[in-house]
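Field reference: sequence -> structure
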Amino acid sequence: MQIGFWQIAIVIALVVLLFGRGKISELMGDVAKGIKSFKKGLNDDPSNNKSISDNDNNKSES
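Structure field:
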């Protein structure tokens, strides 16, 4: 059984009726903010974030 155009249209119509257009756009805005902050976190300077293994190596050298 394949999903057709009408099934998808009915599901979209139900989602819009249940949540409203404003609520869906708020949700998408929140998702976009989360993605932006995740990307920002990945692009932070990794030299400031020392891992546990780096700390262990420094202790053994002392």
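Note: The mean pLDDT is 79.
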